[in-house]
Design the sequence.
């Protein structure tokens, strides 16, 4: 299935060529008076761009052979990964297939107040009332990523007998330790160092994974492309909110509002007044009581926050938690505590990823996909400090019914009756219909494209809550999985020099 270059793409390439001509002219002035020389260079660059757009040239980095990333003679067999993988709420939430494009999730919001007057006589009409309901909805996102063009005549080469293709990768987790539907399965670490196609597919999967981890919290349909090629689903930060409305009438549904509190950039270590313990204790008390009163208990909750915030919170939580309201009760603010016990509680919560609130242990999910504010993005954050939100998610109600989960467009159901009619073997799905793949083939060059259309569903926003603008400081920031973060790092090379070579014909 050959690639085609549209007239618009060709026009863009010609425009780039003209820009290159101008740039090269400016650069070459004073170095050469041969206009034809730099014009020939620019024209060659144009042809290279055309070839690349048409998929005619190898753009994927080779793993072995000349210029191969791992073709260095004498390279040890064991390769250690320094790549940071994201882990967060996406690895906790279950994922379900669906073909419902515009779903409705119903909620009984209550019984109205009495309508009418008290009866004047025994047989007169008494006040009446109504059962009221509210519908919520959800929306798919759409993200896609391509491999580079792979020249199949190049991928199996090696430099010479010193170029070994039995490398073993340590530390790079592809699947098994991540939730289904976040990353394409069927690949293993040994392949990505020795097989170019596998390496390129891993790269696609990793870039999709990063987007999904960010969209789980930060996704906003306001960022969608007009043509629909790129779409973000509403993230949990937007769904855990007040102002809930009926999906069909836009009628306010206040009984479905989340409990939202503002910590107003107070330090997480502040031990006086309404502390972070006071806020989170009240939040959990409110949600647990509401679950009981509405017949939805027991609820499995998860407290979600950035890893750095959890680390700083657990550093002060035992002391503030165990001395809460001491001044109000004793009048002196003095209480003897055992320092060893405080350290043990801190370390236990960190190791088990839990937080003790109102005497109950809650699961903590640390997720770097939650937005973090700095003094460059928010003037309320002092230099050297950070601010972020703490979220409380209801995972299940009545003991086992899931109310926060992910859904994916099920490509199996969508294509099952269509592809056999087209006899199209250049489209396929993986991971039980979570990912859709397209295969482009132009003579000996191939390219793979993958897409997934997912969304996060929050059925009970009234059992969710958040505490905004919690301030924290730390000695050192963690490395990030997101390339857009200033704390992301990679380095290294993707293409190596061919080295020196001599022959009578060179």
Sequence:
């Amino acid at each position: 299935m050959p690639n085609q270059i549209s007239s618009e793409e060709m026009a863009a390439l010609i425009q780039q060529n003209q820009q290159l001509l101008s740039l090269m002219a400016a650069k070459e002035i004073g170095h050469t008076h041969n206009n034809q020389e730099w014009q020939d260079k620019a024209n060659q660059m144009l042809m290279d761009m055309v070839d690349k757009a048409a998929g005619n040239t190898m753009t994927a980095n080779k793993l072995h052979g000349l210029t191969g990333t791992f073709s260095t003679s004498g390279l040890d067999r064991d390769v250690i990964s320094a790549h940071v993988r994201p882990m967060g709420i996406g690895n906790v939430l279950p994922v379900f297939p669906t073909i419902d494009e515009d779903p409705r999730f119903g909620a009984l919001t209550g019984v109205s107040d009495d309508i009418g007057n008290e009866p004047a006589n025994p047989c007169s009409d008494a006040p009446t009332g109504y059962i009221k309901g509210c519908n919520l909805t959800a929306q798919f996102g759409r993200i896609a990523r391509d491999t580079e063009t792979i020249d199949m005549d190049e991928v199996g080469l090696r430099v010479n007998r010193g170029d070994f293709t039995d490398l073993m990768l340590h530390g790079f987790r592809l699947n098994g330790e991540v939730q289904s539907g976040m990353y394409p399965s069927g690949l293993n670490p040994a392949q990505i160092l020795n097989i170019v196609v596998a390496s390129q597919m891993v790269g696609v999967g990793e870039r999709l994974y990063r987007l999904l981890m960010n969209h789980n919290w930060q996704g906003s349909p306001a960022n969608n492309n007009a043509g629909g090629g790129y779409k973000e689903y509403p993230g949990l930060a937007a769904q855990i909110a007040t102002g809930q409305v009926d999906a069909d009438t836009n009628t306010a549904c206040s009984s479905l509002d989340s409990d939202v509190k503002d910590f107003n950039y107070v330090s997480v270590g502040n031990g006086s007044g309404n502390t972070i313990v006071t806020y989170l204790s009240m939040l959990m008390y409110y949600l647990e009581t509401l679950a009981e009163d509405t017949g939805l208990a027991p609820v499995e909750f998860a407290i979600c926050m950035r890893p750095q915030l959890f680390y700083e919170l657990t550093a002060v939580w035992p002391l503030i938690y165990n001395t809460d309201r001491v001044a109000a009760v004793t009048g002196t603010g003095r209480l003897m505590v055992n320092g060893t016990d405080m350290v043990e509680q801190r370390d236990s919560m960190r190791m088990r990823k839990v937080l003790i609130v109102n005497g109950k242990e809650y699961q903590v999910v640390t997720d770097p996909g939650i937005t973090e504010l700095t003094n460059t993005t928010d003037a309320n954050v002092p230099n050297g400090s950070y601010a972020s939100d703490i979220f409380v998610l209801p995972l299940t109600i009545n003991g086992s019914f899931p109310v926060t989960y992910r859904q994916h467009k099920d490509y199996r159901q969508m294509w099952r009756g269509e592809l056999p009619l087209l006899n199209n073997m250049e489209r396929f799905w993986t991971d039980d219909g979570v990912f859709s793949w397209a295969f482009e083939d132009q003579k000996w060059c191939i390219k793979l494209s993958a897409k997934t259309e997912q969304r996060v569903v929050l059925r009970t926003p009234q059992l969710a809550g958040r505490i905004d603008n919690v301030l924290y400081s730390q000695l050192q920031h963690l490395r990030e999985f997101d390339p857009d973060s200033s704390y992301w790092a990679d380095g290294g090379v993707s293409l190596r020099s061919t080295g020196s070579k001599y022959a009578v014909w060179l």
Summary: The first strand starts at residue 78 and ends at 80. The two ends are 38 Å apart (CA to CA). DSSP finds eleven helices and 20 strands in the chain. The mean pLDDT is 82.
